[in-house]
Amino acid sequence: MVVDAYLNIGSLENSQPYYKRYEDVLLDRYDGWPDEHWADVTKEKWQRLVVQDRARVYKERGFESLFIDNADVYCRYHMSEVYQSLKSMLASLKRQGFKLIVNGGDVFVSETLKDGSAKKLYDGVNQEDVFTTYDFNKKKYGRQTKKNTDYYERYLKQAKKAGLDVYIVEYRAGRELSKKIDAYCERHGYKWYNADGIKLN
Length: 201
Description:
Pfam families: Glyco_hydro_114. This protein has helices spanning 44-60, 73-76, 80-95, 106-115, 118-121, 146-161, 175-188; strands at 4-8, 11-13, 26-29, 36-39, 65-69, 99-103, 124-128, 132-135, 140-143, 165-171, 191-195.
């Protein structure tokens, strides 16, 4: 069984023991997560943290696969420098022998699919909220809109066509919806997980 280690490539929580050392590369507060800030991924200091310090820790602990979170930083700060920095970090991690699964980051992923670099940089994608959703303001779980579901279905189909593994995480999908998602994933060769809560604990 392969166990993924979580690697936050685009933001930083203030609960991390090394948070104070990286305050100078932090940007806006992360919506919905008050104890987290986006990171300036173009800074060499941040890149060293991700591809050297954190990667070394995971190597020493025997992890072979990394769950890459918050490539969405490219959606938030849509600049070529951010795009190239993310690609550079992923390429470095890939050279170190890690299997990489990019969580979310559909804007970034879509661009790598267009320029043909996706399969060289990572092995799969995970998408949350394809069929369900969570309202951070109302703190309520619900059903995703048809427009967003259709968008994610097209996006995931493109990822699969490019040779990437596809995973889906939903939140509190009911029995009937779960049956629908089971059939959908079986039909397309995806794997999915029905989480009990937004914090995945």
